[in-house]
User: Fold ParB/RepB/Spo0J family partition protein from Azospirillum griseum.
Amino acid sequence: MSRKLGRTNSAMLGALREGRENKPVGESALPVSFQNRNGRTAQVEVDSIATNPDQPRRDFDKAELTALTESIERYGLLEPIGVKPLPNGLYQLAYGERRLRAVRALGQPTVTAVVLDADAPADEIALVENLLRSDLSPFEVADGFARIMETRGWSQGDISRHLGIAKSEVSRTLKVLDLPARIRAEYLQVQVPMRVLRDIAALKDDAAQTAAWESAKRTYAGAEVESGEGVKAPKTKARRPSEDPAEIAHSTLPKRIARSVLTTRDALVLLRTEPTGKPLADTDRTLLREMRDAIDALLMDEAVG
Assistant:
């Protein structure tokens, strides 16, 4: 990895958070300055682009891909993909596989691409680009970390330094790879927050993990989800955090604050799963933005600290 890319990852995360509200649908999550510093934009023949073997995303939602294809057909490609030149004159995809798949489905002969330097770390760029988009599942993030550690001989500390992520977060993310295969399979149906999945992974045995997973499914599914034994979990409302001390057990926050944080989390979940049917008032939007900014500041302080 180049030193320049390593130094700018934390800045990229901050730039994304500051500008994401004003970006048109489909516009790149990567800051323009990052794209321009690391490549030139060109029209590249679609048939000359090979897929990226280090692509961190493994699951591609068919409905989302169809919607993306229809959007590109109607409005054009609003953001370029990223490629790097190969010695044989062809290109390897660095990021933007869903966009490339959509362009191929439309039969378009060329695609707008940022052509990166030949020595650009495609695996790392793909992981960073998807992390900036919040576009990967916890398992895909963990797979990406593990793959870079294996191929480059990196430690968890190396990932922390290069990607601007707290070492404790890297460690907890990697633990999700130890979860039973059943949980990973069912995650596609019930996409619980990363924090909850990592808390489950921190439990000591499969039985405890399975019990915690069933609880998480009931909390976040909002629908019936078939368990590994073919039994469907009933619909139920999220429980108050104070009624579920297991969620607080792994927190390093004072219990009073942890309960307040989890209560707020559950309130936001209810707003998403049981909307009021009324638009947010300006005061509501201001309050939510202030909460988001405070959370982002805390996470960034931990990442660079």
Confidence is low (pLDDT under 50) at residues 1-37, 223-245. The first helix runs from residue 3 to 19.
